[in-house]
Specification:
0% strand; mainly alpha; 16 helices; globular
Amino acid sequence: MPDKRTRIEVLDGLRGLAILLVFLFHGYYIWDAYYPFGKLYADNLLFKYGSLGVQLFFLISGFVILMSVEKTPGFWTFIKNRWLRLFPGMLICSLIIYLTGSFFYERPFGIPELKSLLPGITFINNSILERIFNTDFPVLELSFWSLYVEVKFYVIFGALYFIFNRNAALTGIFILYVSAACMQILIVHQVFAESAAMKVYIGSFIHFGWFVAGALTYIYYTYREKIYLYLLIISTVCSMLYAYKFHDPVLYIYLIILIMVFLGSLFWAPLGILFKSRFFRFVGFISYPLYLLHENMLIASVIKLHRYIPSIPYAFIPIFSFVFIGALAYTVARFIEPALQRVLKKII
């Protein structure tokens, strides 16, 4: 049985893989209306499906959160620890994005307004805040959506875990996922029309299956009992139904490969060695601020680089931008974020 106190370095490397996939998606595919190279890389499958790096993040979170909650004495301590992990980076990166908005004016979402900071630092969806305050909250970074989903998972899973037990928590999370997936399938088949409330419900829980699959991976990794392997397989297959509405067989193939990489890295040493490498672990170390900062800043800097240095080959422009943003993310992860965490720990 693996020692629960030992840091599982391969998870850091897998975070690095996840953010690299998301970068390829944003840097070469989804914002083709803004790239100087347009749709040049639109047929590259690695770029086209790079957004599935977010599903890899969710798998890792399911694994890590169950591992963390088992070491935590109570719900409020768990929530405090998660808040201390997420809030400092979110606050710092949100301020950086806001303060540099005028410089990166080419941002796809335009120059941010001050009130755009609120959804990120509260981890509450823009649409929910708009209902509460009856005003608009322009998107600061579209990538923040996954943090809103994660925080819902933390709160619901943590509450169920400490009120009941691990199995009840996993069952409850999985039921929320299945209900959202079924609702989405019925809407796709026009059994009923999607209401605003349904959209919020589906958006909140349609990815919860990945957290369950990640948590079951942790249980099997720790105890090696076959029942958890079977449950892991079932939950993983069910989790892929979140993509039913896309009717895209290639997406499912990509997902299966990504899942195999995740599991293979944990259970097959030769693959694990790759993601324990210094490169992947370094990118994993900066992955949180890098994820928060990169999207709009990446596109704006791609545009700037091409404008001022048009001789740079198209394929390298996003890479240069990524390196610049990566250096900024390292500064946040290595120096600023830990300093703010230390201050907050003294206060709360």
